[in-house]
Amino acid sequence: RMSSSAEATNVLLGKSDSLHQEVLSSFPLCDLTEEDLIENPQFCKLLAILAQHVDQSGLTVPLKTELDKAEQKLQSQRRQWLRFESLYRSLQEMVQDQRVRKHHATFCETMERCLLVAQCVRQLDPSSTTNPDQPSVLGLSPEHVMELMPSEKNVQRMKQSVPQQLEKHLKDKSLSLLSYYQPDWESESEGLKVMKLSHLSAQLDKDKKRAASLQEHNKENTVLLQRQSQLYLTELTKCIQLLQTLILHHRLTVQTDLDKKKLEYFEGKCELVLQKIKTEMLEIQLETYTPDTIAAHKKMREKLECEQKACKAEKQSVELKLASFEILGKEFQALAEEYCRLRQEMEVKSWAVKEFTHYNK
Fold first, then answer.
1. How many whole angstroms separate alpha carbon 233 and alpha carbon 240?
2. What does the CA dihedral 240, 242, 246, 249 come to, rounded to 10 degrees?
């Protein structure tokens, strides 16, 4: 067996083109891509070997066989349980229908009583898993409850009527199910309904298989969508990285041109603001003064500017002289102060002489 599986593996590994697809189809539940298998060839070979021993769900062949046998046994027991359970529920439904219709027939009363007694006996009868020495409920035993069974005559009569009544109840319920499944068939005749009812099981089985197929197809589409989404995100990430590279590469050139345009824009805007300020100043002058006044102000301004220049030049010459005087030291400063005092006295005496002369005349 090992040699045959090894040969099959070698054959599979020989087809490198289809190996990746075979592995991906053998393990659909694994989140793998063809790029992962190409980057990890040893792991790909390991998965190819495992595919010879396990199925798509990951179970080995012997375990899968045992699981199928256990599943068949479980289904058989489940069908048997469902058979008795459906019969029991159908009988209960018949009793409930009689109660709702308020039709107290001896048949239904006997059947209801039999069902209650059977249920109580089942509750009181210890199973193989319980302790037989455990005290029963209220000290009752199944024999005590069996005494409450109806008379044998009524029970026999009820058993004779059960098949006919049960058949009628199941038929009405099946027709109701048919009307629910296909509301358009409700207005048809009873014979046609019965004929279509015989094909309802096959139709339901067909719809069930179709739903299972659609569910499986939906699962495959989900896996495919996940792979495509992952591939799309990978390509989108590459595009974003490329876009970032282009932006970083061309940002300096574009930024230089943009800064130049901004500088020209701000220069033009600044010039426009200056011209607007000048215009506002001229408008204020025109609104405040007449043209003759403005011309006179200009002449006064020119004269004052000339005098200001002359004063500045005189100030500079005096400062130069003062600086040259300061070089001579403190002795020259005392002589300069004495000179200033004498000059002031001379000016005062000159003024007094002029005034005296003017007064004598």
1. 10
2. 120
